[in-house]
Write a structure and sequence with these properties.
Elements (H helix, E strand, L loop, with lengths): L18 H11 L14 H21 L4 H13 L3 H14 L4 H13 L3 H14 L4 H13 L3 H12 L5 H13 L3 H14 L3 H13 L4 H14 L2 H4 L2 H13 L3 H15 L15 H21 L2 H22 L4 H14 L2 H12 L8 H21 L3 H14 L8 H13 L3 H14 L3 H13 L3 H14 L4 H13 L3 H12 L7 H14 L3 H14 L3 H12 L6 H17 L3 H18 L2 H9 L3 E10 L5 E11 L5 H32 L1
Antiparallel strand pairs: 1-2
């Protein structure tokens, strides 16, 4: 079992540890801090002896590890603490002979001179250092810091100029500009920054120049012109970066120029294709960092519109964001048809016809790779939605018809087909008032697939047009291809009935009931009998009941037959009672208890409605008694599963076995009553 599936014990530990105990144990385990012994010096001789010992110690360390700069620095620090400045300089010079290219050593040497206010010595040391190591920036920083600290402005400016000849990094140029700003020479500072952007023509340099102009020079127009120059003068690789537009928009927002900021955002979104459907190759050359910056730019635009935009602007931003999300989703899984539905609905709500058509065209181009019909069901609805949109939203029935025609070409009809596509395509032709094309298309559909739905829709179309002969021809073809379909026979008969063609209708029913196989014969027989009853042909209906009872002895047929005989066109209640009695005897012989109960309930209801009290009592005496019994339940293999309770019916006219069972039950009830009475008598005697 993996560790991720284990459940940790969250119960508290039996022994709890307090913070006080932890601190006490930590204090007890600490080792004693060793302190160097305090050396007390009483005279000059002891002082010199102490110095000799310390110097000997450092000289030995230097001898053992000559290249270790830390020993030299500590040695020099000792001499500095005792005001032996010449010795300190000697130690640093000796160290420089060992490692003259150590910038850290030069810095320590210069700091020693500066701490002790030997300014000229420090200048000489830093001058030597920057000549030897011109690429070590902290030496330059220390040099200009010292000159500015002593307020030697020309000297500091000269050092900056020497430094700038070596083309240092961005911070060096900014330090020079800030130095000039502190000196109050904004023109000189601006000139330095212009030299900087000329030396490094990049988006980073322009943005730093604009930031300096805004915050330090307080020159808003200059900052705006710099940002505009960044977008216009630099190469596209530099100027079309997301953070450039973001910084520019932030600047305009800080100045209260919201329309300018909105224009910058919209230009960036259009230029960088943010939130729009674009080919995937445009993203191949974009780094992950730049992609992240573009996402941040888009979030900034959304936040800006929420703060300063109107409802239309916010909806536009949200639409672009959702469009981007759906575009990524369908690119990752082109056969995610639910995503295409949602994408198309989004574009429809936006109201851009070209975008909607583009999404639908891209969606229907994703044909399912297999010939499994289940994989095609969602795909087919893309075509349906596309055609519906063109017809209802754009009122373009011609384009909708073309869409359906293209869809029919895509479907592999030899493997499977979709009846709804044929029907929808034909209905579009009807709405275009092109009946010939609709009939041709439906005829082609019948030839290719011949589904029931196509027949019914084609017949409904012709019937609405009043083409009765065409309807009859369609019904003939319908029944030739599906002679077992009882619904088709019934609908055909209903058509002839509505036209008053009684003999045609009767002939259709006769032909239908003689078919060898029918899917729902009860529907067909019921329709035939109801037709004869509605026509007032009681003899024909009675003969149909008798023919049906020869095929089946279902209880519902007997009930319907009995109710028919009791109706106005039947032969009266006498024949109805004999029919029910005959049905009861036949079902009793078949030992069908549930059916007998249904028959008796229907018989009693009929007697209560049309009969007299005596006939009702007679039927009620035939009603069974409902009893609860137990039986062993078995599985498919014949194994016992346990006892279960069920309800059974005990009829009054059952045989001796039934009466004996009733007598046994009566005797058991009497015995139980006698036992209860005897227990009551014994209790009375005890109490007496």
């Amino acid at each position: 079992m993996s560790r991720s599936g284990q459940v940790k014990n969250r119960a508290p530990a039996p022994i709890q540890i307090s913070a006080e105990q932890i601190l006490r144990e930590a204090a007890d385990r600490q080792e004693a801090h060793t302190v160097d012994p305090v050396v007390q010096i009483h005279d000059a001789e002891e002082y010199q002896s102490y110095l000799r010992d310390r110097r000997k110690h450092f000289e030995d360390n230097i001898r053992y590890r000559r290249e270790h700069i830390g020993n030299w620095v500590k040695y020099a620090r000792l001499e500095e603490e005792h005001k032996e400045f010449e010795r300190t300089r000697s130690i640093f010079e000796r160290a420089l002979e060992v490692d003259g290219r150590s910038g850290e050593l030069w810095l320590r040497y210069a700091e020693f001179e500066m701490r002790n206010e030997f300014v000229n010595h420090a200048r000489n040391i830093l001058d030597r250092a920057i000549q030897l190591l011109p690429r070590v920036d902290f030496l330059w920083y220390k040099y200009v810091y010292m000159e500015e600290l002593v307020r030697d402005i020309p000297k500091c400016r000269a050092i900056f100029e020497r430094w700038m000849k070596w083309m240092p990094d961005d911070n060096a140029w900014l330090s020079y500009a800030r130095f000039e700003t502190r000196c109050g020479s904004l023109d000189r500072a601006e000139a330095v920054m212009r030299r900087y952007v000329n030396a490094y023509p990049s988006a980073k340099a322009f943005l730093k120049f604009a930031k300096w102009a805004e915050y330090e020079a307080k020159h808003i127009d200059l900052a705006r012109s710099i940002l505009e120059a960044c977008l216009s003068e630099l190469e596209p690789e530099e100027s079309r970066q997301a953070h450039v537009f973001q910084k520019f928009a932030f600047f305009e927002e800080r100045q209260g120029e919201y329309e300018r900021a909105r224009v910058i955002y919209e230009h960036a979104i259009k230029l960088l294709h943010l939130g729009e459907v674009k080919p995937m190759e445009l993203d191949d050359d974009i780094s992950q960092w730049e992609q992240k910056r573009r996402e941040e730019l888009y979030k900034s635009y959304l936040s800006f519109e929420k703060k300063h935009g109107d409802r239309e602007g916010i909806e536009k931003v949200l639409l672009a964001k959702q469009r981007k999300q759906y575009d990524n989703r369908v690119e990752n899984n082109p056969h995610d048809y639910d995503a295409w539905f949602e994408f198309a609905k989004l574009e429809e709500d936006a109201g851009n016809i070209s975008s909607v058509r583009d999404v639908y065209e891209r969606a229907v181009a994703q044909v399912p790779p297999s010939t499994n019909k289940d994989h095609w069901r969602r795909y087919i609805y893309l075509w349906i939605y596309y055609a519906t949109y063109e017809e209802l939203s754009n009122q373009d029935t011609d384009r909708a018809s073309q869409i359906y025609q293209t869809c029919l070409k895509v479907i592999p009809h030899k493997e499977f087909t979709f009846a709804k596509i044929w029907i929808y395509a034909a209905k579009v032709h009807v709405r275009r008032k092109d009946l010939a094309a609709a009939r041709k298309l439906l005829g082609r559909a019948i030839g290719l697939c011949g589904k029931e739905q196509i027949f019914t829709e084609y017949i409904a179309l012709e019937l609405s047009l009043g083409e009765i002969d065409r309807c009859r021809a369609l019904y003939n073809n319908y029944l030739k291809s599906m002679p077992h379909n009882c619904v088709a026979w019934s609908k055909y008969a209903e058509l002839e009935t509505s036209l008053g063609e009684t003999e045609r209708c009767r002939a259709i029913f006769e032909l239908a009931v003689t078919q060898p196989t029918l899917d729902m014969p009860e529907v067909l027989w019921k329709g035939y009998i109801d037709f004869e009853i509605n026509e007032g042909e009681g003899d024909h209906a009675r003969k149909l009941y008798e023919r049906l009872l020869e095929k089946t002895s279902h209880v519902k047929v007997w009930i319907s037959f009995g109710q028919f005989e009791a109706s106005e066109i039947g032969q009266g209640m006498g024949i109805a009672r004999s029919t029910f009695q005959k049905a009861y005897d036949q079902i009793k012989n078949q030992n069908l208890k549930e059916e007998r109960v249904l028959l008796l309930d229907a018989w009693r209801a009929l007697e209560q409605d049309r009969g007299d009290l005596a006939s009702v009592e007679k039927v009620e005496k035939m009603l069974p008694r409902r009893i609860k019994r137990k039986r062993m339940r078995k599985d498919s293999g014949g194994n016992d599963l346990g006892w279960e309770e069920y309800f059974d019916y005990q009829f009054p006219d059952e045989g001796q076995s039934g009466s004996s069972n009733l007598k046994i039950l009566e005797m058991a009830a009497k015995w139980k009553k006698s036992v209860v009475d005897s227990s009551d008598d014994s209790d009375d005697e005890i109490s007496d």
